[in-house]
């Protein structure tokens, strides 16, 4: 069958739909399955940068071009009609002069050629202008579907299946300014510019497309930083992956950390060397970030995020939790360390990296600043910020934890229940200390690199809130999150909240204790059964116990062999005469073993992470580190 002749712009149908879906084999099914989408396009100048309801999306150059083309096409049609009339007159003998007829026909041909060429030039010029506008515009998405802002007459909307497309050519409509409330969009994370801005989108979309949810992300890397509420986020990720049978990139040999503080290496993950795991979904245990090695383990479409905390409050927490490290051991107070202790601060001693710019260290940068070198702080701070922005899709802020969970929920396309949580690895108020403004100033100066990171990403955090959610909507969603947390606390928690570790009845739910901090835990309501009990229990399971559970689930044979080895070692040990802390008496199994390792670490030094080479550790050395490097297992 010969192809149908090309229609002019005026003669084209409003939409043309093409599909290669096997389900649509006849006209009736085609009309039922294909989407009926209407949208119009326009370009407006100096509009705000975010759009929610896209209306009348079309090039501003189009009306001028169409009007010119319309008049020129009408003139061309008249010329053709006159030419046909002359031919007819000649055939009926009414042409009086052959020479005059040929001259007139020649002039008509020249005029017609000129008209056609002018129309073509106008079209070419219009396409060039619109292509230039298109090249300056970003992609606009609806969930996971992409709207490609093409030239008039060939705007393609990709909807779900790659074989369906909608090609639109619509008459021009006068531009209408959008209200401020209409210009917010969670799907336009980047500004579209102010000189020539696309304002507009889908007017009418069938309900299936309008309500179609985005696709939840299941490939995730969370850089777990220290003393930033990261254990709570770890529990969120554990619960999400556990309930969906996703695969975690867990530490080798049942560690709780990825051999921190050494730079991460791919063979630190269980299943990498043996190739027993085909694909990892989530990596979220403590590590010192090293992007090339992480990318060896995780898929290309992985979502990277982390969390920061104000270095002032963070330093107060670190001083209490890591009081036994060499840098803090002799200091009578945090002020005493900041005033005098730093003079004897030795970067070569084990675990002293906790004492200074720990956030910078966790992200993989040198945490020690040369204060007598001009510009050293600014240069290294800018370098770290640039690298983090390049490697991570989202940086959360601990002081705005609920707002952070709303941003995370939207970024990952998860539900509210996926991000609801109870605080884990949180200290009792009795071990918290108020800091004076003078002490805060000294902390900011001592941790100047961390302070730079915090200031920068605190600003970008709120910019993202404004660009993707809006302050009013954020308040509403935070309220819903807090209400859901309160409902779960009423259902799950016996005492309505956290209690001191000595009061936790279930030994399997007792949190790990370290340093001078008192880490609180939870008691579950009696009578919980079935899925409700499982859900409540997962919400309050501490990090070390949950890590062990997931390891056993993913690697049952390895876990069984390790249990047998642990029993053999335990049977050969002599009874200890050490006085037991009542807060720790109920801890059993792997938690108690890790506590013993911590005690040994306090009495023995180990390799300095600053002296570690970039190639990290060979796999043969990992087993030797297990017993002597107990700080790898600190939450």
From TrEMBL:
Gene3D superfamilies: P-loop containing nucleotide triphosphate hydrolases (3.40.50.300). Residues 599-610 have a biased composition (Basic residues). Keywords: Glycoprotein, Golgi apparatus, Membrane, Signal-anchor, Transferase, Transmembrane, Transmembrane helix. GO terms for biological process: glycolipid biosynthetic process. It is found in: Golgi apparatus membrane. Residues 67-77, 86-103 have a biased composition (Basic and acidic residues). Residues 571-580, 611-623 have a biased composition (Polar residues). GO terms for molecular function: galactosylceramide sulfotransferase activity. Its main location: Golgi. One of its GO terms (cellular component) is Golgi membrane. SUPFAM superfamilies: P-loop containing nucleoside triphosphate hydrolases. Residues 67-103, 569-635 are annotated as: Disordered. InterPro entries: Gal-3-0_sulfotransfrase (IPR009729), P-loop_NTPase (IPR027417). It is a single-pass type II membrane protein. Belongs to the galactose-3-O-sulfotransferase family. This is Galactose-3-O-sulfotransferase 2. It comes from Oncorhynchus mykiss (Rainbow trout).
